[in-house]
Design goal:
The protein is an alpha+beta fold. It contains 23 helices and 22 strands.
Length: about 775
């Protein structure tokens, strides 16, 4: 071997030796050494678990969609082969959606829905585990009439979107093949994914930045656990003869050991969280444990990046510390920070976002997405860089006050950066949440449609299946009005009407009701029993396909013969038939077609028809709407009752917002856990000082308030900075979608209070540990 090769091999061997020596340093010092490493491992582990859980959210939501698509089935209109007849029986129970289907096999080879072992017979039902639990509860008796007479089984995970979903299949022997859906196979249903568009794509990119960046910040803080003790120990080795490179390798080995242990802890916490996931429901969403699977690429990236980032942060923290005599730097007043480079970070982020302002994301290609992500990251990282300087500048001028306040302020003056690291993750999360709320508020109108419903005229719309004749209508509406809490109920019979032969046939809708009920649908003068009115649809309804190209109402005249209903009952339009204008019904629709009073047609000869009714229900009467839904379910398999709303939002927008809610809840829970570990580690490092103060007679109440003030001051400063950063980032994002600055200030206040509350709650939770550290045995040293 040449001398140069031998020298290189020797340097490698020396580096490996130094790293190994640093790894051994992680466990020296008795119990304190083990606790220091344990805290580092737990901190890093929580961060890794947060990353893995956050990375699993998109996959879990996709798995829900896939199972929902699989049970939708493949439909067939012909009568070849055995099929499963399906009627929609969805309902709502106390604001919870209940997914339901009424089914009947056409033959022995009819397909079986996913998750169902055997098809239920007439009067039987198979239900989801969550629905079975609800039915077994005291509240279940109110829902049971809509489900089935006998529960004969449960739906497996393959047939559910989530473990908390309320779902059922009930058997029937009275489904009409002509009025239901025929399914020949399951597993190929669902609708194709819609493209997100530039605005929603921007929203998704920013959501990932906001959810993942606080985790990275906490990972950086976790590897600094035990920093004071580590620096003093490495400074002692420096005085013993170790050079700067050796000290760096010792520190790298020690930090790497804690980070590798953190990966193991993180994997364990992730597996625990994965098993607990089915027990948690957020924003109506739940997930099976098998759905919580982060992509393999992100797992590999976390395994490699977490230790490397830990080593990098540890080495950066050593600058200007270990080269000095033992303890001098840690016990001296730190030099004043220079703010210019700290300001450069958010300004660089703003410079990246500036070219995309004023609606510059119309195409939003891959390059623009990376540009937005990088700009948002830098602006939020600016919170981390500016917070230590801002805390230092603020507390430097604080003087006087109670003893507890002076103890807290002095601690912040000596080590404000340590407290800044403690709350910087919360500040980043608050800033990102404020920016996202501003973006959501600014674009909400783009994804919200005004339904035109008038909730002052009716509160609910109902479809009561297919009773026969107007006597059934009157009986059913009478039953409904007798329900406590129902103030009014008015309905119309509706069916189809056709003219012509099988080869050339035009169609339209027929509405049958008394004059007061028709007054909600059309504008007609002099309505009397026996009258018929013709309402021609507007041109835009024909153009959009919501009306037939040649409606019957456009060509019909008094004396014309038409066919009514599926049985094609022959009916001659009476001489009182005349034109009318459409009115806006309580749902905001303008109905068109033929409108007949009950005296103009023999409804008993028409066979089954559907009822459309508008109800006014007093919301203060408990379960009034639930009893009406029971009547609707008993009237027909398609019976449903829904509340009228003045607006509705696009499905993709709602799904993204629900996904954000899940991510924020998970992130805040784990941030709270990580923050608690940070606080406990800081208290452990100061246990001798706390025990000494207690020994000299300092009341426990004073020390408790000192710890609280020491936490509260950085939190308040960080919250102010987070609000400023969040508003700035939100304004930039709104500019990209061409919106002016619009914020819901209640959401800004809520996000700030949530972040501050998390930090204060963690401080309160750490007080029992504080009392224990103040005992006299904390004075013992070696």
């Amino acid at each position: 071997m040449t001398g140069r090769g031998a020298g290189a091999a020797g340097r490698v061997a020396q580096a490996v030796h130094d790293l190994g020596y640093g790894a051994r340093l992680a466990f020296v010092g008795g119990r304190d050494g083990w606790l220091r490493t344990l805290f580092t491992a737990v901190g890093v582990g929580i961060g890794v678990a947060m990353l893995l859980l956050a990375a699993s959210v998109p996959g879990a939501l996709a798995a829900r969609e896939d199972r929902g698509a699989a049970r939708a089935g493949e439909y067939a209109g012909d009568r070849t082969g055995d099929a499963l007849l399906i009627a929609y029986s969805d309902t709502i129970f106390r604001n919870q959606g209940v997914w339901g289907r009424t089914i009947a096999p056409e033959g022995p080879q009819a397909p079986v829905p996913p998750g169902v072992a055997a098809l239920p017979g007439p009067g039987e039902a198979v239900v989801s585990p969550a629905l079975a639990e609800l039915l077994a509860s005291p509240d279940g008796a109110l829902l049971a009439p809509r489900i089935g007479e006998r529960i004969v089984g449960q739906i497996g995970p393959d047939g559910l979107t989530g473990p908390a979903e309320l779902a059922f299949y009930r058997g029937s022997d009275s489904l009409d093949p002509e009025r239901t859906t025929r399914v020949v196979a399951f597993g190929g249903g669902g609708r194709p994914d819609e493209p997100l568009g530039s605005t929603l794509s921007l929203l998704v990119v920013v959501i990932f930045v906001v959810l993942l960046l606080p985790i990275v910040v906490f990972l950086g803080a976790a590897v600094r656990f035990g920093g004071a003790a580590r620096d003093r120990r490495l400074a002692a080795l420096r005085l013993a003869g170790a050079d700067h490179r050796m000290i760096g390798r010792f520190a790298a080995g020690e930090t790497l050991t804690g980070a590798l242990l953190g990966l193991i802890v993180g994997a364990g916490l992730f597996l625990i969280g994965r098993q607990v996931t089915p027990l948690v429901q957020v924003a109506g969403l739940s997930a099976f444990a098998a759905d919580v699977r982060p992509p393999a690429v992100l797992v590999a990236l976390a395994v490699v990046a977490a230790p490397l980032a830990a080593v990098a942060v540890g080495l950066i923290a050593l600058r200007g510390v270990v080269a000095e005599p033992l303890g001098v730097v840690r016990r001296a007043t730190p030099p004043r920070s220079r703010p210019w480079w700290r300001l450069a970070v958010p300004l660089a982020g703003l410079a990246l976002l500036y070219p995309l302002l004023r609606g510059g994301i119309s195409s939003f290609d891959v390059l623009s997405r990376y540009q937005v992500a990088a700009g948002a990251v830098l602006m939020l990282i600016g919170v981390v860089t500016l917070l230590p300087w801002l805390i230092e500048t603020t507390v430097r001028r604080m003087r006087g006050g109670p003893v507890a306040w002076q103890l807290a302020v002095r601690r912040l003056q000596v080590d404000g950066a340590g407290n800044a690291r403690l709350v910087s993750g919360v500040a980043v999360a608050v800033a990102g949440t404020i920016a996202l709320q501003g973006l959501f508020t600014g674009i909400e109108d783009d994804f919200t449609r005004d339904t035109g419903a008038d909730t002052t005229r009716a509160s609910h719309f109902a479809n009561f299946g297919s009773p026969a004749g107007d006597t059934a209508v009157d009986a059913l509406l009478t039953q409904i009005t007798e329900v406590p809490g129902v103030e009014s109920a008015g309905g119309v019979l509706t069916t189809g009407v056709t003219v012509g032969s099988d080869d050339v046939k035009v169609w339209d809708r027929l509405f049958i009701a008394n004059c007061p009920a028709l007054a909600d649908l059309i504008i007609a003068t002099g309505c009397a029993d026996g009258d018929v009115f013709l309402v021609v649809p507007p041109e835009d309804a024909v153009r959009t396909g919501t009306a037939p190209p040649t409606p019957v109402a456009a060509t019909a005249r008094p004396g014309d013969r038409v066919q009514v209903g599926e049985d094609e009952y022959g009916w001659t339009l009476p001489p009182t038939t005349r034109a009318a204008e459409p009115s806006v019904d309580p749902w905001g629709r303008r109905q068109h077609g033929i409108f007949a009073t009950t005296g103009a047609i023999d409804t008993a000869a028409l066979g089954p028809m559907a009822i459309e009714a508008y109800l006014t229900i007093d919301p203060t009467v408990p379960d009034a709407v639930e009893r009406v839904r029971n009547l609707a379910a008993m009237a027909g398999v398609n019976g449903s009752v829904g509340a009228l709303t003045t607006n509705e939002q696009a499905r993709q927008y709602v799904n993204i917002r629900r996904g954000l809610t899940v991510g924020i809840v998970v992130t805040l829970l784990l941030i709270g856990a990580s923050l608690l570990v940070n606080t406990l580690e800081q208290l452990r490092e100061r246990r001798r000082l706390l025990a000494m103060l207690a020994a000299f007679g300092t009341p426990r109440r004073v020390l408790g308030w000192a710890v609280l003030w020491q936490q509260l001051v950085p939190v308040l400063i960080g919250t102010v900075l987070a609000v400023a950063a969040g508003l700035g980032l939100g304004a930039a994002l709104l500019g990209m979608v061409g919106r002016s600055l619009t914020f819901a200030w209640w959401s800004v206040a809520g996000a700030s209070a949530l972040g501050a509350g998390a930090a204060i709650g963690v401080t309160v939770a750490s007080l029992p540990v504080l009392w224990r550290l103040m005992r006299a045995d904390g004075l013992r040293t070696e």
